[in-house]
Structure prediction request, 224 residues.
Amino acid sequence: MKTRYAATARRLQWAIGWVALLLTCALQAQPAARPASFVATDPRTVLVMGDSLSAAYGLSAAQGWVALTAERIAKQRPGWRVVNASISGETTAGGAARIVDAVVRHRPSVVVIELGANDALRGLPLRETRRNLARMIGAAQGIGAKVLLVGMRIPPNYGPAYTMEFERGYRELAQRFGTTLLPFLLQPIASDRGNFQGDNMHPVAAAQPRIRDHVWPVLEPLLD
Prediction:
């Protein structure tokens, strides 16, 4: 009797062992769960590549027009986020050097390019400025992102021909690549000295909401 019971127990243990092994193999064959970062409900990204005007120079980051725009997007366009990759002092060459890494890392659906002012203030060749901006636009469009090109205006320090050519460059690039264009970022505040910090170049905190409101009508349609 005991012998028969022991034999039955051994067969039962053997059967349980095989079932456990089969279950383990089945679980290992299942595809691994995707990390949370790949969930379809992840927010789409607006990537801002700019200079000190977009990096909130002289202010806290939360006071700048980019942060204010991010707040509006969070309220009015759930499912979107803003990544501000702007750097004070950035030139178009610096932006062109960073753009590929930025778009690969953040996979943006919209890229805002606000660069060129530092090139012009230094009197750099405008051909190089256009070439660098074209590279940035091409990199963004290459991953399927929409582009908002933000233009600037400069004082005629290097003569009227240089100044006009600088402004014309943004229009021609927008036409060439089919991007949305905002001709002059500081349009609503430029005529009032009180809107600027002591350097007469960077807007004060009180002026940032007006810049946000100036950008919004051309940015919002790109979020559809």
Q: What stands out?
A: The longest strand covers residues 44-50. Confidence is low (pLDDT under 50) at residues 1-40.
